[in-house]
Write a structure and sequence with these properties.
Blueprint: E1 9-12, E2 18-26, E3 32-37, E4 41-42, E5 45-46, E6 50-53, E7 57-61
Antiparallel strand pairs: 1-2, 1-7, 2-3, 3-6, 4-5
């Protein structure tokens, strides 16, 4: 099962409700519930959040999340524009 993250677009398999995962509650004995807020407007107001068990949801897409970028291994040297010198230590006496 894929992990649902905040901001993902999800769909309830039972009711067909689709929306954005806006809250996650994890209980002591493993039950996980996701708050789903529809992106639709009803009577000029945003619809209220519905709380749904995690196994009942399927992921439709990243929703409002940005695409995950691969992590780079480039080091950040702060605001210096040069690489620090590597010093060799001679422990022989």
């Amino acid at each position: 099962m894929a992990v649902i993250k905040l901001g993902m677009q999800v769909k309830d398999k039972v009711s067909g409700l689709t929306g954005i995962a806006t809250s996650i509650t994890e209980f002591l004995y493993g039950c996980k519930r996701i708050g789903v807020t529809p992106q639709e407007v009803k009577d000029g107001k945003p619809m209220e959040e519905s709380i749904i068990d995690e196994p009942q949801l399927e992921i439709l897409g990243n929703g409002i999340l940005e695409e995950e970028k691969p992590k780079t291994t480039k080091r950040n040297y702060g605001d210096r524009d040069f690489k620090p010198m590597k010093h060799e230590i001679n422990l022989r006496r």
